[in-house]
Amino acid sequence: MLSLLKKLTAGTPAPVQPETPPATPAADKVDPYMLGLHDAMLSGWFNQQTGELFSGFPVTPEDTLLDVGCGDGGNVHFCGMRGAKIIIADIDAAKVEATRQRLGDTPARDVECHVTDCNPLPIADETATRVVSTEVIEHVDDPAQFLAELVRVGKPGALYLLSVPHPSSEDLQKDIAAAEYFQKPNHIRIISEEQFKAMVSDAGLEVISHSQYGFYWSMWMLLFWEAKVDFSNPDHPLLNHWADTWQAILASPRGTQIKQALDAVVAKSQVIIARKP
Q1: How far apart (Å, rounded) are the C-alpha atoms in residues 273 and 212?
Q2: What is the SS3 string spanning the chain?
Q3: pLDDT for residue 18 is more than 50
Q4: What is the Cα 239 distance to its own chain's centre?
Q5: Would you state the pLDDT for residue 27?
Q6: Percentage of the chain lying above the pLDDT 90 cut
Q7: How far apart, in whole angstroms, are the C-alpha atoms of residue 197 and residue 20?
Q8: Which of 276, 237, 230, 270 has the alpha carbon at shortest distance from 44?
Q9: Domains of the chain, with CATH numbers?
Q10: Quick one: pLDDT band at residue 22, thresholds 50, 70, 90?
């Protein structure tokens, strides 16, 4: 059989190999954090045109803005660029120093820094015209005491921007997240929409608006736990494909409408704008 095959193929010209097509340039990898920033801006954050840190929360050069739990300083950097006086407070000295340095390239009227557990805040009564505290209340032992301090340091008429994780996202993470995610010093409580509004109202503030956003981050976090990568370098096919998909959704003709529909179902955060009487 082998000899017959050789005879049949003797003198048969070798098959022509197809030319290798030129390599397609690799698409730029989607940065999940920059995509998250874009998604947040679509939800009302960081509006350069109106000067609003979040919809309904304008910041002007005349304002004295206090950020309690400043984190990486993204919120106060925006406000510093508006020329406001900035006061930052956080329990983490390294974050306070990093944020202080980050504010160095802004036209902020002044920058005041405090390393504190906020019990109490080392700030005089009726100091701030704008008070910000995002994703902090779920960490603290006594939310009522914490909010009382925020109210104490605000001037009459001061606006408050407060956020906590939305229960829809927290419930989604419960059986998937690492155990420490729901242990001190991380999230020690899940706060319902009704509880959040009651906390703010009971502290003596008038709730102006209550909204939610962040389906993108809810799904990203869910996949993050499964990917088991480091948060500082979250490179994994699950996360990369999700970022690609979300970017394609936002770029589609009804992308914003789809985002709003999904944000209404599973949101990473809920946001309250309130006023001190």
Answers
A1: 12
A2: CHHHHHHHHCCCCCCCCCCCCCCCCCCCCCCHHHHHHHHHHHCCCCECCCCEEECCEECCCCCEEEEECCCCCHHHHHHHHCCCEEEEEECCHHHHHHHHHHHHHCCCCEEEEEECCCCCCCCCCCCEEEEEEECCCCCCCCHHHHHHHHHHCEEEEEEEEEEEECHHHHHHHCCCCCHHHHCCCCCCCCCCHHHHHHHHHHCCCEEEEEEEECHHHHHHHHHHHHHCCCCCCCCCHHHHHHHHHHHHHHHCCCHHHHHHHHHCCCCCEEEEEEECC
A3: no
A4: 16
A5: 60
A6: 88
A7: 63
A8: 270
A9: 49-170+177-215+267-275 (3.40.50.150)
A10: low
Per-residue confidence band for 72, with pLDDT thresholds at 50, 70 and 90: confident
* Location of structure tokens 């779920």: 138
Prediction pTM value? 0.89
Res. 29 pLDDT band, cuts 50 70 90: confident
Q: d(Cα 171, Cα 191) in Å, to the nearest integer?
A: 11
- The average confidence (pLDDT) of the chain is 91
